[in-house]
């Protein structure tokens, strides 16, 4: 199975910091058409997201689940199937195995699905997204400028692009 892994905040939706309310969730332009194209090319789509706002007490798992179910349904309305969503609820101090830049969420996904890492992709808006993917054997990485401010000079990403909309052209 070839997968396009997506970070959530800054890749799918505008980065607003500790987002948990549906009314604050704004999809980034072109995300649906890009994901439709990934599907046409034979990729599954999995979301991998750090959600330390849970450990920090800004919102709880139920808040996350509600927003997540809404987001997945919005994708569905736009003819995009999200295969799965993995999230890390911990804070940096928890020293869990899953918080990016650690690869735990990717390796969990690799245990659950027969993923062809070499032919899969990761799209993120932070270097931590790129690092985690590389540790898990995913070399096709894209850093996008649609979220956090990025350090383009020191990035290990294979590509740096404006947003998810442009990723189709490099995958082709
Ligand atoms: Mg992000
Ligand atoms: Zn974690």
Could you characterize what this model shows?
With 172 residues, the protein is an alpha/beta fold. The protein folds into two domains: 15-99, HAD superfamily/HAD-like (Rossmann fold, 3-Layer(aba) Sandwich); 100-119 and 126-161, no CATH class. 29% of the residues lie in helices and 17% in strands. It has helices at residues 31-40, 61-77, 104-112, 127-135, 167-171; strands at residues 3-6, 44-50, 82-88, 121-124, 140-144, 159-161. It has a six-stranded parallel β-sheet, with helices on both faces. Strand 1, helix 1 and strand 2 (44-50) form a beta-alpha-beta unit. The longest helix is centred in the middle third of the chain and has 17 residues, at 61-77. The model has no long low-confidence stretch (mean pLDDT 98). Bound molecules: magnesium ion (MG) and zinc ion.
SSE layout and pairings?
Layout: E1 3-6, H1 31-40, E2 44-50, H2 61-77, E3 82-88, H3 104-112, E4 121-124, H4 127-135, E5 140-144, E6 159-161, H5 167-171
Parallel strand pairs: 1-2, 1-4, 2-3, 4-5, 5-6
Bound molecules: magnesium ion (MG) and zinc ion (ZN).
The site of zinc ion has 5 residues, from loops.
Main sheet record? 6 strands, parallel
Could you state the order of secondary-structure elements as H and E? EHEHEHEHEEH
Strand order of the largest sheet: 3-2-1-4-5-6
Could you name the CATH topology of the largest domain?
A: Rossmann fold
- CATH-wise, what's the superfamily of the largest domain? HAD superfamily/HAD-like
- CATH class bucket of the largest domain: Alpha Beta
